[in-house]
Design brief:
about 325 residues, alpha/beta, Helicase, Ruva Protein, domain 3, five-stranded parallel beta sheet, two-stranded antiparallel sheet, about 45% helix, globular
């Protein structure tokens, strides 16, 4: 047993963490073309024990990304299609009276899986959204006075349509803050889109994907990421970025303490999967837009567009 644990730890050294990540990205990249950076951000989000929000128009591959990640990571997968008539019990589960046993028995809902795709989360009512987001925060659910632990790892990938579309209920700022990252996939470049048009259905390629990592390796990578070195100078730079978001007149509410902690966690994971022994300013810059863009709200009279505010902060704060 000791030899096996030593082997796992050796595989999760910074150099080998990058090798593992490259294999994961290569596998997922067979289905999701030209989105290596977004795939790496999703992997970093998992290793940081966070949750991912993907906001984009329908049809760009959000669901395929979640399914592909579940396969190559070897995680139990469930998809929850959010609708306006969904109830919290549809997500968490419900207690049903069984006559044979003469008692109520809790039947677990689809939330009890390691990787959850919360599809079109902003089409559900705030009550149903809250049931999911509470579970994300606590990693457990309570039903009829009993508490049930969720699996480990527990990774939620929520998709969200643009809020101007019909039938959506925007997530409030307090709930958006619970997502460690928000990314978009966007349209593919024209050469890749031509490959999509001429190739096989991308969903048929899911059957060809192979598991590239075990659960113990994921757990060890998470522990290794926690220990990635962060220098005082790097913390000074990070705090300068955080301070700027709170002092900039264009921003209504600056980055929260939870967002600041998430920024360091994400940077540690980004450094690890790129083989770095410690976090660099480039690692902070790489994850900064994904970690903070959904947490910052610009004022109505701001001269900086909200979708570019993270880049504006990065450009305005020099590296010490």
């Amino acid at each position: 047993m000791t030899d096996k644990l030593a082997l796992v730890k050796d595989k999760t050294s910074p150099a080998n963490a990058r090798s593992i990540t490259d294999k994961l990205v290569a596998q997922v990249g067979r289905v999701i073309l030209g989105k290596d950076r977004e795939i790496r951000l999703a992997i970093a989000c998992l290793l940081a024990r966070g949750h991912l929000l993907i906001e984009d128009v329908p049809g760009v591959g959000k669901t395929l990304l979640a399914r592909s990640l579940a396969i190559v990571l070897g995680l139990d997968y469930q998809r929850i299609q959010f609708t306006s008539d969904m109830l919290p019990a549809d997500i968490i589960g419900v207690s049903i009276f069984e006559q044979g046993a003469n008692q109520f028995r809790f039947h677990r809902g689809p939330l009890f899986a390691q990787l959850i795709l919360a599809d079109e989360v902003n089409r559900a009512t705030p009550k149903a959204q809250s049931a999911l987001l509470e579970a994300m925060e606590e990693h457990q659910v309570t039903a009829d006075g009993d508490t049930y632990d969720l699996p480990d790892p527990f990774f939620v990938i929520a998709t969200q349509n643009p809020t101007h579309q019909i039938g959506t209920f925007p997530l409030p700022e307090s709930q958006l803050d619970r997502f460690l990252m928000r990314i978009g996939l966007g349209y593919p470049a024209e050469p890749l889109e031509r490959k999509l048009l001429l190739g096989a259905d991308r969903r048929s390629l899911l059957d060809t994907l192979q598991v590239q990592i075990s659960e113990p390796e994921i757990a060890e990578l998470q522990k290794t990421a926690d220990a990635v070195f962060v220098s005082d100078a790097l913390l000074d730079y990070t705090q300068a970025l955080i301070r700027y978001t709170r002092e900039l007149p264009e921003i209504e509410i600056g980055l929260s303490p939870r967002g600041a902690v998430d920024l360091i966690s994400a940077a540690r994971c980004w450094a690890l999967i790129h083989g770095h022994e410690g976090v660099t300013p480039e690692d902070i810059k790489a994850v900064f837009p994904a970690v903070v863009s959904h947490r910052l709200r610009t004022r109505n009279d701001s001269s900086v567009p909200e979708h570019t505010i993270a880049d504006y902060v990065l450009e305005s704060v020099p590296v010490p």
